[in-house]
Design a protein that fits this description.
- The protein is mainly α and 153 residues long.
- Helix content is 49%, strand content 0%.
- The chain contains five helices and no strands.
- α3 packs parallel to α4 and α4 packs across α5.
- The chain is globular, with a radius of gyration of 17 Å.
- The chain starts with 5 loop residues before the first helix and ends in a 27-residue tail after the last helix.
């Protein structure tokens, strides 16, 4: 007796292929998958490109940098233009999907904001739309790790 129907098996295979495909995509593709209403402005594209260069540099992947200046990144932009959402919420979740041993420290002038960003990352890893096979150990928003890895926030 079969324990799984062909339809369910096809769905599992399709999901695995989709996850493998997403592993090679960029940050803004991930953001739009997780938040379909996200509108990419030119400054979002510039921030995402800079974050992708940092991620590539840290992981030792080929990337375009000016000198060796990709490890540190400072972003100066007006309030309410999407910095926190892109940098502190979506970027860590995207990187953890690509490298379950990545570690992040989220800081803010207020502990509550850092905790909210950490909780957002953790929640994304638990979301059914999350395209990577990485899940967090459920723990406090301030400190948690990825199952089967050493990464976390």
């Amino acid at each position: 007796m079969r324990w799984m129907t062909d339809t369910k098996l096809d769905l599992i295979i399709a999901t695995a292929r989709r996850r493998a495909d997403w592993a090679s995509r960029g940050l803004l593709d991930y953001v739009q998958l997780m938040m379909s209403t996200y509108e990419v402005a030119p400054h979002h594209a510039a921030i995402a490109a800079a974050l992708e260069r940092v991620e590539a540099h840290v992981r030792g992947l080929p990337h375009e940098c000016i000198g060796e200046k990709c490890v540190r990144l400072m972003i100066f932009a007006p309030p309410q233009c999407g910095k926190t959402q892109l940098v502190s919420k979506f970027f860590p979740a995207w990187v953890l999907g690509r490298d379950k041993d990545a570690r992040f420290i989220l800081t803010s002038y207020a502990q509550l904001l850092a905790d909210q960003a950490s909780a957002s990352v953790r929640d994304q890893l638990q979301d059914s739309r999350y395209p990577y096979p990485v899940r967090p150990y459920v723990g406090p928003a301030a400190a948690w790790i990825v199952k089967g890895g050493t990464g976390g926030v």
